[in-house]
Design brief:
417 residues; mainly alpha
Length: 417
């Protein structure tokens, strides 16, 4: 690398300094451009076999950008992505031209424990550069931090645990990794990580045991859904198809929702099980919806998915106002295909409610959409004259809503126009 090129690269890195007194909302584009130029130059150096030149440059660039983001608005995510790329590039350079292991280990531990929370440090990317000596030094420094950490220092406790888990991962010792992961199980996601580690290691029986433990402690919630999906996948992969379907039924019985019903049907289809699962699921939801209104939309969706549009209509019509707007229209449109006369009164009610909903800025546009559907209901029975009369009454009733009347004119809903 020529001296002039080195000076130019140094100048680029200097542009990554940031005065904390500067307006945090200005200069992001130029700063991002400077970061990308540094990355491009260093990437070319690595490709040219000059990674040793790029290593200190990238270290300085990462340090400066890490500090700069404390005083800049990075809500768009662009600058964060730039920093992540520089960090990945630095790891790549270190793999090609490893620096002193102890120094790299100290920098990584300090970044995680004392840094602002960015950039991410994934030891698997740094393990080749650290080598056995560097990883041993990381372990020593983490143990040292753990011994000095106050129980009330949440960030320090998290940082120590974060690094200990990663050290266990890169060790390649599955039992050690599982032991570390299991030290502080507070969420379903943590059980899921153990399950995935054991499954990838070809130990499905242990993975099933851990996923069942997780579901016993965390039977519901977002991460629990993923945990149950893992269990079903493991059961199918190990030939326990009936147990997989039973697990889906258990999940649906605990939380009879349309999503769990879809999962049940998908597992039934994948395992070729022959059973009346749809009828059972509908019966469960009928009983729940009778007691809790929150389950009514799920009952309607399940009935429609099961192909029972008629029961969906009769279940939803008496409590139409309790359904989400999307579902009300879906229910009316399904009924309009076979019984157009049945939807007239409900459509009138929906249109009136929509026009009077002052909280909705798009109420008139939505009312026009409903009117188009309503017109089709009259057209299906050959009674377009009745719709024309209804439309005129609607104009008269809302004559003091010029914006709505203007939109009505543009929509050209009159059958004879």
């Amino acid at each position: 690398m020529r001296a002039g090129d080195e000076d130019e690269l140094t100048g680029l890195v200097d542009r990554l300094r940031r005065d904390r007194r500067r307006d945090p909302y200005t200069g992001q584009r130029a700063y991002s451009q400077a970061a990308r130029e540094v990355a491009d130059r260093c990437s070319r150096l690595i490709d040219a076999g000059e990674a040793a030149v790029a290593v200190p440059v990238l270290r300085k660039a990462v340090d400066r950008m890490t500090a700069a983001l404390m005083y800049m608005d990075s809500s768009s995510g662009v600058l964060g992505n730039d920093l992540a790329y520089l960090m990945d590039l630095y790891a790549r350079a270190c793999r090609a031209a490893p620096p002193r292991p102890a120094g790299l280990a100290a920098w990584l531990v300090k970044l995680v424990c004392d840094g602002p929370g960015w950039p991410d440090v994934e030891l698997r990317n740094w393990a080749p550069a650290l080598g056995p000596k560097g990883l041993a030094e990381v372990t020593r420094l983490v143990d040292e931090r753990a011994a000095a950490t106050d129980p009330d220092q949440r960030h320090q406790r998290w940082a120590v645990r974060y690094l200990r888990e990663q050290l266990a991962e890169v060790s390649g010792d599955v039992d050690r990794y599982v032991t570390v992961l299991a030290e502080d199980l507070v969420s379903a996601d943590q059980y899921g990580r153990i399950v995935r580690v054991l499954a990838e290691a070809g130990r499905p029986a242990e993975a099933v045991d851990w996923v069942r433990r997780g579901l016993a402690v965390h039977p519901s919630g977002h991460w629990s859904v993923g945990l149950r999906d893992l269990l079903v996948r493991l059961l199918i992969d190990t030939g326990e198809s009936e147990a997989a379907v039973d697990e889906r039924r258990t999940g649906f019985d605990a939380h009879p929702t349309i999503d769990n019903f879809r999962s049940l049907l998908a597992t039934v289809a994948e395992t070729d099980r022959d059973a009346a699962h749809s009828g059972w699921a509908v019966a469960v939801l009928r009983e729940r919806a009778a007691r809790q209104a929150a389950y009514l939309p799920h009952l309607i969706d399940v009935l429609i998915l099961a192909g029972d549009d008629d029961e969906a209509w009769h279940s939803g019509l008496p409590r139409l106002g309790e359904l989400p707007a999307r579902q009300r229209v879906e229910l009316l449109e399904l009924r309009r295909q076979t019984h157009p006369a049945d939807v007239r009164a409900p459509y009138r009610t929906l249109i009136d409610a929509q026009l009077l909903d002052s909280r909705d800025k798009r109420r008139y546009d939505k009312a026009i959409t409903l009117l188009r559907n309503f017109r089709e209901a009259y057209a299906a029975t050959g009674e377009t004259a009745l719709f024309t009369a209804y439309l005129q009454n609607l104009r008269d009733e809302h004559r003091r809503r010029p914006t709505f009347l203007a939109k009505l004119d543009v929509a050209r809903l009159q059958p004879d126009r």
